[in-house]
Give the backbone structure.
Amino acid sequence: MLPAKNHSLEHIDWLPAERLGQFSVDAQVRSWLIGKGLLTQRLRAVCGERFQFRLAEQSTMLLDVAQKQYLRTADPAALVREVEMSCGDEVWVFARTLMPDSTLIAHPWLAELGDSALGETLNDLSGVERSSYDYAWLARGNSLADRALRDRDAGPAGLWARRSRIALRGAPVLVQELFMPGMGGV
């Protein structure tokens, strides 16, 4: 069973972890969604030398009401950082990070991460707190799912995603990770 499709394609019904069990999730994807530890390090361990981390795009965007509420910010805009994590030539995870203007003022180095993984970078710092994960099924037609699937002519009807809020010495960052079907088979 998949979550009901909302008429507003941009509205996402994020679920807490305890509700994820109510839905059909491919076993391999589920293990990546709920697994412990840094995602980048887990991918490196499975893929070895075939692991690739690539900055796909970095730009700015206006934050919508839901994003502002989740981030607990009044900032009108944020830096958007999109990355792809691949095993060989196959993208396994597409991630989008939103860094509000006030976060970038407090930590300008975040805009210069390039091909460095945010999670691994933050793992070495003090004063970093991560919320628990929320999960969602993002159907095609949702702008985030469509962005993740942009290079696929055919493909899944949607993707499972998770999100968390990171506070870097109080400054908020939103991380959303979308998991491609069939990932995990090396």
Q: What stands out?
A: The domain at 15-179 is CATH 3.40.1410.10 (Chorismate lyase). Residues 59 and 74 are 19 Å apart (CA to CA). The chain has a mean pLDDT of 87. The chain has one domain: 15-179.
